[in-house]
Amino acid sequence: MKSAQDVTPEGQYERALQEFDLREIDASEVRSVFHLKYRSRLDEILSAVRHNCTPGAHIVEIGCSQANASLLLAEAGYFTVGLDLRREALRYARRKHQWGSFAPLVGSAAALPLTEGSFDAAILGELLEHCPDPLTVIRQVSAILRPGGILIITTPNGRYWGNPDPLYDPNVPVRQPHRQLGLPGEDHPFVFTSESLIPLLTASGLQIIRAGYTGSILYGNPAGMVKNLLPVSALKWLSSLVNKLPGLNKILSYTLVVVCRKT
Fold it and tell me: Which of 24, 137, 195, 229 is the most buried (most CB within 10 A)?
């Protein structure tokens, strides 16, 4: 996968995606909170795919945007599809593609243009919190998985102490569904807790393999001097410990990670 520095974007949207990449995956400042949070989410996704699927498996990344997970998995020998509503995002992803089987596809998570039972794994990375009807999305995704296929979800942790967004409540209509389409994607109609997300998955015939957290307050400004003095490897190790602390992880970790299997 090409670095964002080696890509020549066209148009405002592609330039915005390049700026995200330069801030997150291709950041020059490896202690940046944006880089550390993004890499923690991306590494969780890649690890879950590699742990549950052998190379050659068919993977779809839904709401892929820059398609970084899809492109990296394609290079590792998986057959990947990157699906997004925005053609500009897929054009940008094509510019980054170097080798491996990667197919960009325009489509909506709420009405997937994919054949039922055709994928070994699906990725919903930072997407569900933008969808007015997340249960419909989950059921759509479950339908395209083969029996035994896995779904990997990352989404902002609604219990994080600094969270400004309303918690998901299935009984409360989404007042501004148009916000899901915004860039840079910081406006969420709601955010999930594990207690509100897992019932949607089990109701869709999915068995939870893992539910946990990634990224922590140690990556952000509140960590201050500790963050700046520690080696990055030590910072990541300590953050992983925070993610495993019962009770504290619910309020000190940035991101929920759920991996589930179609029964």
Answer: 137
Distance CA(192)–CA(229), nearest Å, equals 33
Residue 116 C-alpha from the chain's centroid: 22
Average pLDDT of span 8-14: 96
State yes or no: cis peptide before 184, omega within 30 of 0. yes
Which CATH architecture best describes the domain 4-21+44-216+255-262?
A: 3-Layer(aba) Sandwich (3.40)
- Nearest-Å Rg of the Cα atoms of the chain is 18
pLDDT tens for each residue of 89-121 = 999 999 999 999 999 999 999 899 999 999 999
Domain boundaries, the chain: 4-21+44-216+255-262
Task: Answer yes or no: is pLDDT of 178 > 90.
Answer: no
